[in-house]
Amino acid sequence: MEEKVDISVEFAGLKLANPVFTASGTCGYADELSDFMDVNSLGGFVTKSITLRPRKGNATPRIVETDSGMLNAIGWANIGLDAFVEEKLPVLEKLSCAVFVNIAGETIDEYVAVAERLSGEQAIAGLELNISCPNVELGGISFGTDPSQVSEVTSAVKKVVGEKVLMVKLAPAVTDVSVIAQVAVDAGADALSLINTFTAMVVDIETRKPVLANKTGGLSGPAIKPIAVHLVNKVYNEVAKSLGIPILGMGGIRTASDAIEFIIAGASAVAVGTANFIEPGCAVKIIDGIKKYCVRKNISNVKDLVGSLDQDLTE
Amino acid sequence: MSEKSSTAKRGAYLAAICANKQIGERFYRLGLEFSGAGAEAFAKVQAGQFAQLDVSGAALPPAETIPEELADVAGRKVLLRRPFSFVDVTTKDDRTLVDILYCVVGPATLRMTTLAAGDSVSIIGPLGNGFRVPEGKKTALLVAGGMGAGPLQHLAKILTADFPGIEVIAFAGAKTAEELPFERQLDKIAQQLEFSLPEFAKYGVQSLVATDDGSAGFAGPVTDCFSEWLGKSDSAGESTVIYSCGPEQMLTRVAEIAKARNIDCQVSMERRMACGIGICQSCAVECRVAESNETIYKLCCEDGPVFDSKEVVFSS
Question: What is the ipTM of this complex?
């Protein structure tokens, strides 16, 4: 039976071997993970954020653990576009899974410049537009929480990405995430990824100071999973389903059961984030677990699970 | 260990707990046993390297034994792994035994105290770069603050075994005698100014103890004890190397002493880290760029934790 289960998915025109990605910022540029897993066994891979110029990132402490979660405020520390193209793309080029590059910037021009340069690169299947990072002074979430700016940056990038899939990563803490999702799709997004982290704070009561040097950080991990499942389901029902736009669901996924919840809620694919820090090979187990679930539930094609949430509570 | 030796391949392994001995009020020594690929990977470990332990599944000790100051955090669910360096590594047949010295400071280390022989724990390692031995050194000075004495014991063992031409002297300090992470023999000799800790003496290494309150050994910071000793010593700067591990404030002072006397100095840095494998970018250490005023962030986990002291911009 197991051989007959098809867990391949179609994601914005891309054929993926399975619906499991690793999420931006939690899997480096792929080579870091290779001691722990075969990155090619993934359906997709999203690089950490790339900006036009290298960024040092924020001062330390950059992380703090919380109940069933963690806050991070890295601040887009990255090697910059030129070094990425020169040093990291050759590694990514060898991958058989779908490679997405997460791109970020302080201005629309910066997003466009990075997107334009990467649009011609064979190694890349698509771009993930980071308009939801809570840890930078300029750019990031300041774009993602304002519908008119979401529209402007998405359409500007769409004009230069050519055939590459444009995926827009949404911030969770907005009045109505579906409004932002709709605007992104109208402006040209081929796919949506959600959710990014929640802006959060931990206070040191001895010093009465925030623990993080950046004061606030993005909350991730199991603590945010039920909210993420809800928001994926909301965007699926209100925007994505009718328009045929795939969702990459994420937020606290550690196990196959977690991943399946997201798929049932409406995600066409899922991304493993914080869990990579704890169990760097766990995506492989999740892929295997999804397959086993399908066997157990007599589901021959994982696509049939997407958005299969039974909301009829009368039974 | 030396610059020519190869680094062991990192990976995720399961280790069997063979001992978990309380050696002080808050200090424990955890014994881990690796077999198979883990034994091979950890047999070649360098002093100063570290590993990430997943202790999230370990049970909490009984409520009445939890120190009052940890009562609020004790029940917190542990998510991330915790990084630890090694106090000793030995090989026996096809197994490798790794000892970790730890201090109970929060929910994870509190849980670690309940690990017992027969349990197993998931470990990622060995990670990072350990202490290096530059060519031409005749004297190695080990300066430890608090828990920093752990990896420096491992270093003392390796130096005395593999570099017989190098004389090794250790300095270990803490706020009080109680806070020195050694077995309890200290009480008997607490008033003595000069003695050798058994932990270092077993490698033939002389050691000096300092406590801020004077309850054992030199009265004052270990850096004062060290500086005073250096002032009286005739060790030539160029043939000496300083290795230090401890709180950043102490490392800052050790680096200043080393700079003033033009002695090579390696410091083991500590940062909050999530992954330990170069992905999360949490454990940034600000470093000078050679021949410029610029600084960059290096990663404690991958570029360190051991850095040349001249390179580090200390944050305290």
Answer: 0.92
